[in-house]
UniProtKB/TrEMBL annotation:
<dbReference type="InterPro" id="IPR000768">
    <property type="entry name" value="ART"/>
</dbReference>
<dbReference type="InterPro" id="IPR050999">
    <property type="entry name" value="ADP-ribosyltransferase_ARG"/>
</dbReference>
<keyword id="KW-0328">Glycosyltransferase</keyword>
<dbReference type="GO" id="GO:0005615">
    <property type="term" value="C:extracellular space"/>
</dbReference>
<feature type="signal peptide">
    <location>
        <begin position="1"/>
        <end position="19"/>
    </location>
</feature>
<dbReference type="GO" id="GO:0046677">
    <property type="term" value="P:response to antibiotic"/>
</dbReference>
<keyword id="KW-0520">NAD</keyword>
<dbReference type="Pfam" id="PF01129">
    <property type="entry name" value="ART"/>
</dbReference>
<keyword id="KW-0732">Signal</keyword>
<protein>
    <recommendedName>
        <fullName>NAD(P)(+)--arginine ADP-ribosyltransferase</fullName>
        <ecNumber>2.4.2.31</ecNumber>
    </recommendedName>
</protein>
<dbReference type="GO" id="GO:0003950">
    <property type="term" value="F:NAD+ poly-ADP-ribosyltransferase activity"/>
</dbReference>
<keyword id="KW-0808">Transferase</keyword>
<keyword id="KW-0521">NADP</keyword>
<keyword id="KW-1015">Disulfide bond</keyword>
<keyword id="KW-0548">Nucleotidyltransferase</keyword>
<dbReference type="GO" id="GO:0016779">
    <property type="term" value="F:nucleotidyltransferase activity"/>
</dbReference>
<comment type="similarity">
    <text>Belongs to the Arg-specific ADP-ribosyltransferase family.</text>
</comment>
Length: 305
């Protein structure tokens, strides 16, 4: 009788474990890893100074429309004020605050990345429905500044994903299509998920440890426009293991906000003057962003209204 009872207990445990495992498998979403064709992947090549001239007004608009962004920015600005004396002077304050905001625990990075993955569906989608224009620009510029401040190099990084099993094939060219957090330490990624495990050689991602909320994660942030070759893709114990090697960059968009077709209701100055304004800035350096009302807004020192 004792053996029968023990057998029933073991059987029940096996059934429960099996049910839980099957339940987990059914909750996993399979997603094709491809070139992320709907990604908004602007690199702002040749127009950074023109974008900077629009940031103050654009940021006020997005603070009003996007409360998740506004709240995260306020928290990040407060964090930057408390640590700015210890932060390397590689980035301008607004760029450093953008990274701090992105790395905050909370809904911002998830909402932001989801929006980045879809904002490239069309020009109008970006102009009218993408309310992270300032954050996208500042993160892009921050990564560029960090890359330029160090010798050109590539990094071996890792990323774990929960509840999504990415599918791809060896030899394909792919992009993440959003700003992608990875770690220099493979063990750090296990806490974020094991359904897909990426091993990535990135040549455009850069370490952001000095500007991240959680420095011990040894985070390397990869931009949406970096392309990779899939060098290996295997399945083990129901999990996907994908190895990627950096190839090049690719963008469908460049300088979209200042090409003359502005968001509905936008009161900015450029309008159709893209070429005229661009020509007038040839050989000139933009006036510093930091200072004036934009600087105060970025630091959270003044009201948005």
């Amino acid at each position: 009788m004792e053996h029968l009872a023990l057998g029933l207990v073991l059987l029940a445990g096996t059934l429960v474990t099996s049910t839980l495992y099957q339940g987990h498998l059914s909750s996993i979403k399979e997603v094709a890893l491809d070139m992320a064709p709907n990604s908004f992947d602007d690199q702002y090549q040749g127009c950074s100074h023109l974008m900077e001239e629009e940031l103050a007004e654009l940021n006020r608009t997005e603070f009003t429309i996007n409360s998740i962004y506004a709240q995260a920015w306020a928290l990040a600005a407060a964090e930057w004020r408390s640590r700015r004396s210890c932060v390397p002077p590689v980035l301008r304050p607004e760029q450093a605050i953008a990274i701090l905001a992105y790395t905050l625990p909370g809904p911002l990075y998830q909402n932001f990345n989801a929006a980045v993955r879809e904002a490239g569906r069309s020009r109008r989608e970006y102009l009218d429905s993408f309310h992270f224009k300032v954050l996208h620009f500042l993160l892009s510029e921050a990564l560029r500044a960090l890359r330029e401040a160090q010798p050109r190099r590539c990094y071996q990084v890792y990323r774990g994903v929960q509840d999504i099993r990415f599918t791809t094939q060896r030899g394909r060219t792919v992009r993440f299509g959003h700003f992608t957090s990875t770690s220099l330490r493979s063990q750090n990624t296990q806490q974020f998920g094991k359904d897909t495990f990426f091993s990535v050689c990135t040549c455009y991602g850069v370490p952001i440890k000095d500007f991240s909320i959680i420095a011990q994660e040894e985070e390397v942030l990869i931009p949406p426009f970096e392309c990779f070759e899939v060098t290996n893709a295997t399945w083990r114990d129901g999990n996907a293991y994908i190895q990627l090697y950096s190839k090049e960059t690719f963008s469908n968009y460049n300088c979209e906000f200042i090409k003359g077709d502005v968001p509905t209701g936008w009161s900015g100055v450029q309008g159709g003057r893209w070429w005229e304004v661009a020509q007038s800035h040839q050989g000139k350096r933009a006036s510093p962003l930091w200072g004036g009302r934009w600087g105060e807004l970025a630091l959270g020192l003044v009201s948005l209204h």
